[in-house]
Amino acid sequence: MLLGLSTGHSVGLALVAGAFVVFALVSALVVPRRWPQFPGQRLGWFIAATLVLFVGTLAAVEVFAKESKEPEAAEAVTAKPGTSTGTTTEKQPPAPTGDATAGKSLFEAQGCGGCHTFSAAGSSGAVGPDLDQALKGKSAEFVHESIVDPNKEIAKGYQPSVMPQDFGQKLSQKEIDDLVAFLTKPPS
Questions:
Q1: Whose CA is closest to 125, among 109, 112, 141?
Q2: Beta-carbon contacts of residue 148 (< 8 Å; ≥ 6 apart)
Q3: How many CA atoms, within 13 angstroms, populate the side-chain half-sphere of residue 124?
Q4: What does pTM read for this prediction?
Q5: For a 10 Å CB count at each end of the chain, is N or C smaller?
Q6: What does the alpha-carbon distance between residue 178 and residue 122 come to, in Å, rounded to a whole number?
Q7: What gap in Å lies between CA 148 and CA 139, rounded to an integer?
Q8: How far is CA 129 from the centre of its chain?
Q9: HSE, side-chain direction, 13 A CA sphere, residue 82
Q10: Which of 82-86, 104-108, 118-122, 149-153 has the lowest mean pLDDT?
Q11: How many CB atoms lie within 10 A of CB 185?
């Protein structure tokens, strides 16, 4: 978690957490050896100090580890077609830009039909989901993500990591676009 924070926030959070850890270690290991009767009559002060440090650590996490929401908001705002100043809060998925015919050849060459049923490819594999059903109504963005990060959303009844995880590295962007075009709008 500390690696994802800015340097100042990492240092601040580390200092507060470190103080709490040092207090806990000293309370558990050093104090009982030096003062076996501790906390004795000082139990109230000990509990108060523990609570203050605990609440301080929680507050430091809230302050220092707070994620910025600005980048997400900036990504979600896009210009409406035909206007220069209009915005919408929804990101529009890109239309498939690939060549569906080339995508069909790629589907066959990569052996996708050995695992998936897809009528446009004439395949009847049963290892993976039936793409005629699983992709019905899905966007090109969803199909793209399913190719490059197949474990992000797993179809019901299937195990993770069955589909090769390296298509995002193995295939070029054009090949992925062609495959997405074939899977979303197969050629007639």
A1: 112
A2: 167, 168, 176
A3: 0
A4: 0.51
A5: C
A6: 18
A7: 15
A8: 22
A9: 0
A10: 82-86
A11: 15
**CA–CA dist 121, 43 (Å, integer):** 75
HEC states along the chain? CHHHCCHHHHHHHHHHHHHHHHHHHHHHHHHHHHCCCCCHHHHHHHHHHHHHHHHHHHHHHHHHCCCCCHHHHHHHCEECCCCCCCEECCCCCCCCCCCHHHHHHHHHHCCHHHCCEEHHHCEECCCCCCHHHHCCCCCHHHHHHHHHCCCCCCCCCCCCCCCCCCHHHHCCHHHHHHHHHHHHCCCC
Q: Which residues touch 91 (CB under 8 Å, ≥6 apart)?
A: 75, 76, 78
Tokens coding 69:
């929401």
Residue 185's region, left for phi above 0, alpha for psi from -120 to 50, else beta, is: beta
Q: What is the pLDDT of residues 96-107, one digit of tens each?
A: 589 999 999 999
Instruction: Quote the tokens at residue 171.
Output: 């295939």
Radius of gyration of the chain (CA): 28
Kindly tell me if the per-residue pLDDT of 113 is higher than 70: yes
